[in-house]
Amino acid sequence: MKKVVNSKVFKTFLAGVLLIAATHMSVHAEEWKYAMGEGESDPQGIYAVAFKNYIEENSRHTIKIYPVGTLGEETDMLEQTRAGILQFLGQSTGYMGGTIPEMDLFTLPYVMPTDTKQLDYFFKHSKVINDMLPEIFREHGLELLSIFPEGEMAVTTLEPFHSPADLKGRKMRVMPGSPILVETYEAFGASPVPMSWGDLIGALKTKMVDGQENPTVWIEAYDLDNLTNVLTYTGHGHFNASASANKKFFDALSKRDQELVRAAAAHAHQVILNEAQKLDAYGLGRIVRTNPSYKIVTLTESERAPFKEAAKAVQASFASKSASNKSVLDQMMADLKEAEKKAE
Ligand code: 6CS
After folding, report:
1. Alpha-carbon distance 64 to 55, whole Å?
2. What is the tens place of the pLDDT at every residue in 210-252?
3. Could you tell me if 343 and 126 are in contact, meaning their C-beta atoms sit under 8 angstroms apart?
4. CATH level 3 topology of 30-342
5. Which residue from 93, 178, 218, 240 has its CB within 8 A of the most atoms of ligand 1, so it is best to mutate?
6. Which residue puts its alpha carbon closest to atom 3 of ligand 1?
7. In the chain, where are the structural domains located?
């Protein structure tokens, strides 16, 4: 009889312990900070909101999103995330090359395709992104979650240009975290001016710079077409962004919460890749509708030839900076070749 009572007590005790353990995981709620270099309706915001919704629908955790400008410049946010002040970061790749040199891979001229189907395949299957960069990010105190496209780079200037000679002496703003963007615009004949987004509008208004590059959704959303006279498609690049977590924070999460974060990132990645198929057309369409007199130029293949020739030296310069740079570039080229073959 005594034995029976003891095993009953033990089973009740065990059930209580398991119940507390289970409810502890679900009731354990934290607020995580997510800063990004764009607004909530911009591509990085579409990703961040999808990520936030997934986390909050599948756990008791909450995400507080800090859009561009609420926590200083994009470069500040990268340091705040590495320091663990922020848990998550949405970051344009053009701001990262100064800290993580391999990330200048995504700003190299005439490497990324402009075809949205190839880009979709690349950002889903790239070995550089899925196998090589995560380890490199960890060396910099970050856990890489996603890299995704925001649209073809379009160059807006006061005067038209059709050759590197036309760009001679033109002050062209480039994102401030990328040595490769400086080398690119020097190779294109211009005078690059590294400058944070927060200073660009004023610099265009005061003619401190003659032009800049961005995807059309951003050009239209922030009225850059009304601060310059012509938009030129050179085909030289694509605007890309990343999402990452502070590594110490991520490593300290329970296995369940690590899986939750990865699932939220996979969900948000799919959401933004679906959107990315139409961002260029949407951005250009709005520019043409809202600013019909704005000049749109697409360089011909022969006009692009000298820019492509100049780009080769920039690609070689990137590869020569380190063995790691060379190996990620070699893998990137292989990934892009596969994307070209497999994109439906
Ligand atoms: O040009 C820039 O700096 C900004 N452009 C985009 C598309 N996203 C954020 C970035 O700060």
Report:
1. 11
2. 999 999 999 999 999 999 999 999 999 999 999 999 999 999 9
3. no
4. D-Maltodextrin-Binding Protein; domain 2 (3.40.190)
5. 218
6. 197
7. 30-342
